[in-house]
Amino acid sequence: MPATSVGGRWHDPAMTVFTPPPATAAWQHLDVRTGFEVVYLRSTPGGYRVEGCTTAVEDGDAWVVDYIIELDPGWATRSARLTSRSARGERHLTLETDGAGHWRLDGEPAPWLDGCLDVDLESSALTNAFPVHRLHLDVGAASPAPAAFVRATDLAVERLEQHYARLPDGGGRQRYDYAAPVFDVACRLTYDESGLVLDYPGLAVRTA
């Protein structure tokens, strides 16, 4: 069941409530890279459209990733179009999914992604919003959230096993324990009232 508007707030069936997403948001990269991510969000007849750009310098290399992501009303990914630019050249990628966990990369089946409902960009803090909106976890609940993970510079696509566990809210903010074992990542993510990441320890912090 998609989210519905109640009193100007988005009310989800599992009692998670978010305000409508802002028209734009931005994050500053931390630690492993230097740079920014800027994104524009808007509702569409089919759900949501996200247009963003992330730029960074990492290990002495400068790169840019532009992306357009289409989401259904429940925030599951339906398509993503990406362009990556670096000293090694320009790359393009199109991902498409039926919303039931079956994917195509540039038109070709990608069975290793079966069961994934989200796209996760290596260069993006924004994409960590997708599972939180889609899962509607109650406090104390947890869920796996495997994703189609896209590398920044070469746009290689891998299956990424992730896990989200919702904690009691702190200071009016939703908090989740997040884990991605393949990267040895385990941290606590803090979200604003619209369900966008405010603080991703060691990776990004919200600036707008």
Largest sheet: 14 strands, antiparallel
Helix content: under 10%
The gyration radius over C-alpha positions equals: 16 Å
Terminal Cα span: 31 Å
Average pLDDT, all residues: 92
- Assembly form of the protein: single chain
Strand order of the largest sheet: 11-10-9-8-7-6-5-4-20-19-18-17-16-13
Structure overview:
By secondary structure, the protein is mainly beta. It has one domain. 3% of the residues lie in helices and 56% in strands. It has 1 helix and 20 strands. The strands form 3 sheets. A 14-stranded antiparallel sheet has the order 11-10-9-8-7-6-5-4-20-19-18-17-16-13, with helices on one face. The protein has a 3-stranded antiparallel sheet with strand order 1-2-3, with no helix packed on it. A 3-stranded mixed sheet has the order 12-14-15, with no helix packed on it. A hairpin with a 3-residue loop joins strand 19 (197-200) and strand 20 (204-206). The longest helix is centred in the middle third of the chain and has 7 residues, at 129-135. The model is unreliable at 1-14 (pLDDT under 50).
Outline the secondary-structure elements.
Elements: E1 4-6, E2 9-11, E3 17-18, E4 24-29, E5 34-44, E6 47-58, E7 61-71, E8 77-86, E9 89-97, E10 103-105, E11 108-109, E12 118-121, H1 129-135, E13 142-144, E14 147-150, E15 157-160, E16 163-170, E17 173-180, E18 185-191, E19 197-200, E20 204-206
Parallel strand pairs: 12-14
Antiparallel strand pairs: 1-2, 2-3, 4-5, 4-20, 5-6, 6-7, 7-8, 8-9, 9-10, 10-11, 13-16, 14-15, 16-17, 17-18, 18-19, 19-20
